[in-house]
Amino acid sequence: MRNSVTETQRHFEARERVGVLLPIAVPQVYDYIVPDGLSVPMGAFVDVPLGSRHAIGVVWRDGDDAIEASRLRAIRAQLAAPPLPDSVRRFVDWVASYTVQPAGTVLRMAMSVPAALRPAALPQGVMLAPNPPAIRATATRRRVIEALADGRPRAPVALAAEAGVGPAVVRGLVDLDVLTWVTMPEPPPPAPDGRRPGPTLSPDQDAAAGTLVDAVADGFSVTLLDGVAGSGKTEVYFEAVAEVLRRGGQVLVLVPEIALTQQWLARFKDRFGAPPAEWHSDLGQAERRRTWRAVAEGRAPVVVGARSALFLPFPNLGLIVVDEEHDTSFKQEDGVAYHARDMAVVRGRVGALPVVLVSATPALETHVNARDGRYRWVRLPTRHGGATMPAISTVDLRRDRPPAGGFIAPGLRDAISRTLGDGLQTLLFLNRRGYAPLTLCRACGHRMRCPQCTAWLVEHRLIGRLVCHHCGIGQPMPRVCPACEAEGSLSPCGPGVERLAEEVAALWPTARLAIATSDTLSGPAAVAELVERIENGHVDIIIGTQIIAKGYHFPMLTTVGVIDADLGLSGGDPRAAERTFQVLTQVAGRAGRAERPGRALVQTTLPEHPVMAAVVAGDRMGFLAAEEEARRDAMMPPFGRLAALIVSGRDEAHVAEAARHLARQAPERPGVRILGPAPAPLALLRGRHRQRLLVHAERSIRVPDLIRAWLRPIRLTGGVRVQVDIDPISFL
Questions:
Q1: Could you tell me which residues are beta bridge partners of residue 690?
Q2: Beta carbons within 10 angstroms of residue 324's beta carbon
């Protein structure tokens, strides 16, 4: 018996062992034995036993020889999927370290489509049998046979439609053995052509494009493509995309909102002859599987997508473009908290490839990096094709007041009337969805509040419901006040886009209106339909939130009105001034992008505010200089570092005690301040109570390392958890 055990042990030790990372929230890699006859490369997807079940993981490193081989279990199988590239694995490790998350949690984002790891069930089609029997040749049968004469298989329904016959004719020919069933190959994705000639560029555009094209051959670099709205930035970076395609590489273009891609997709197809692959949450599972697999196999040359596209398994990535790089939608706050713009730069460095950041209003962090020479800085200071920048002015709501119950001041109302009279289009911008942001009882003052969040319910009159914009819970509008039971006493307070549309319809009853928000545009098809209507002149007044405020080119849009420009300046957000400047500049930039001059009117009660003055003057550099000085004095990013720790749980007392315990264990070192704990502004979110601690540190401090050491000995109970957000954008 002893000899048998010894021989078995020797047999285990003779076999290869590997470390496998699993997409679960654990920090360690698990070692497994590689069975005889199986050779697994680094990055291979493997099926492994895990306790009483099995899981899919990735071969991450060589095995640890210090572990006794008899304690290890064997890999069950290797999956028929391309290995996860080395650059992606190193990127996963870097993101995990920086965000203070287990590597397995980050890996889960790179394995977001488990079905793509196994071969697809290919569809069945029909084609002519090799030796068909003689049959009576009717006219309908002849049409089917002629349609298949090119030798390509067809799906039965598609074949019937092509031949102009009923499906029964096709089924009958199958039964007669004239047609035979075959497995149809998965159609290849579209192939954009980098050799197609592009449009004629202006001298400024041509010089900018040359810089980006040269960067493709230089390995890692970061370039800020900084151009005013309408300067043709997209056509410029398309030249770099074309260069990568000519070299046989892959390109990733990140956009903050999938709604922004509709015009972009049309321009891309015009330029390259085929659309890119798309990656966003509105795709169905089958399309996600096809795209993930095509990327992994190198068959998807260009992908345009949301922030999660960074974790796609590109084997031959040659360029990353981050369009509208300043946009806060690039920050993910749930789960692994990361900023896609910053992680795109990391992905470029890990993969030794160029990154292009594109914006008309770059983030202060990006501006400082470009000014100080860490990034290349390419500028397009004028609009393309002779178009001029819009004239921007303020409407002082203290003097030019809207009528009672209205929100459009007389000055803006007159401008809209003139625009309608000229047969041109107006955009009214209000960054509030729904009908009204608050509903209260006129009898007792009760405010309709979300039962799961520290937030007011927003009235959406179009669907007849009160909705929480944080957790999504909704309820019908009550007939009576839930507090005092007064009937008909609930009243809307403040404007949302629906209420603004009601006012517009009353003022201009013959005008054709369109509301553009994430509520009314339910997917890419709805966005495309609205864009087409606007481009074709079938809309007179567009009323929208920031979903329509950037990236679009509407030649007939000449007037922009901002209803409540002060909305973003309130609260304790250290980036409030910067965000307000960016959104006002971006929305104003929708006006006058063709041969007709444009104007923007900004309604405000604070026309003397530095942000409003900078927007009106078009003085971005002056604004950034003042913002930089204020941030430097306060040691705020990019001149200092921030990190948030959000302690949350179902029991308020447990959360408060855990937060206090965390604060007592906080590190004490020069250059670091720990603020809190204190209830988060959203102290209740999705039914979880929340307390926040904020780390404020000098720029030289490695904050992720500090937090990792701080949290390592902490053991939380009672369903309490801590979420770490390095470089927070939201302070809710």
A1: 648
A2: 23
CA pair distance 727, 331, nearest whole angstrom: 10
Cα separation values, 587 from 156, 432, 708, Å = 50, 15, 41
Hey, what's the torsion of the CAs at 450, 453, 455, 461, to 10 degrees? -40
pLDDT tens for each residue of 477-512: 898 999 998 988 898 888 888 999 999 999 999 999
> What's the length of the chain?
732
* Locus of tokens 């970076």: 237
Which of helix, strand or coil describes residue 507? helix
Rounded to 5 degrees, φ, ψ at 88 are: -70, -40
Q: What is the Cα–Cα distance from 536 to 556, expressed in whole angstroms?
A: 9
The pair of three-digit structure tokens given for residue 346, joined into one six-digit string: 């990391």
Measured distance CA(647)–CA(643) in Å, rounded: 13
Q: What's the rounded mean pLDDT across residues 366-373?
A: 96
Written as one letter, the residue type at 152 is: R
Q: Looking at residue 553, what DSSP letter applies?
A: -
- Angle at the Cα of 286 from the Cα atoms of 280 and 288, rounded to 5 degrees: 30
Cα–Cα distances (Å) from 594 to 63, 417, 598, in that order, read: 62, 21, 9
The gap from C-alpha 470 to its chain's centroid, in whole angstroms, comes to: 17
Q: What is the DSSP letter of 247?
A: T
Q: Where are the alpha helices (DSSP H) in 541-698?
A: 576-588, 610-617, 620-634, 652-664
The maximal CA–CA distance of the chain, rounded, in angstroms, is 99
The answer, as to whether pTM is greater than 0.85, is yes
Percentages helix, strand, coil for the chain (3-state, rounded to 5) are 35, 25, 40
Residue 282 DSSP label: T
> How many contiguous H segments (helices) and E segments (strands) does the chain have?
20, 31
Angstrom distance (rounded) from CA 732 to CA 679: 10
Task: Tell me the residue type at 473.
Answer: I
Tell me the per-residue pLDDT of 460-470, one tens digit each, with 9 for 90 and over.
888 888 888 88
Residue 110 has pLDDT above 60, yes or no: yes
How far is CA 130 from each of CA 127, 150, 181, 312, rounded to the nearest angstrom?
A: 9, 14, 12, 42
pLDDT average, residue stretch 669-694: 90
Average pLDDT over residues 206-215: 96
Contacts of 672 (CB under 8 A, 6+ apart): 695, 696, 697, 698, 701, 706
| Tokens encoding 708 | 């990792």
Query: Would you state the structure tokens that stand for residue 450, as one six-digit string?
Result: 């979300």
Our measurement of the distance from residue 566's CA atom to the centroid of its chain's CA atoms, rounded to an integer in Å, reads 26
Name the strand (E) or helix (H) holding 221: strand 221-227
Indicate whether 6 pLDDT > 50: no
Cα–Cα distance measured from residue 361 to residue 225, given in angstroms and rounded to the nearest whole number? 10
The helix or strand, by DSSP H or E, that contains position 236, with its residue range, turns out to be helix 233-246
Give one DSSP letter per residue of 318-376, joined into a string. EEEEEETTT-GGGEE-SSS-EEHHHHHHHHHHHHT-EEEEEESS--HHHHHHHHTTSSE
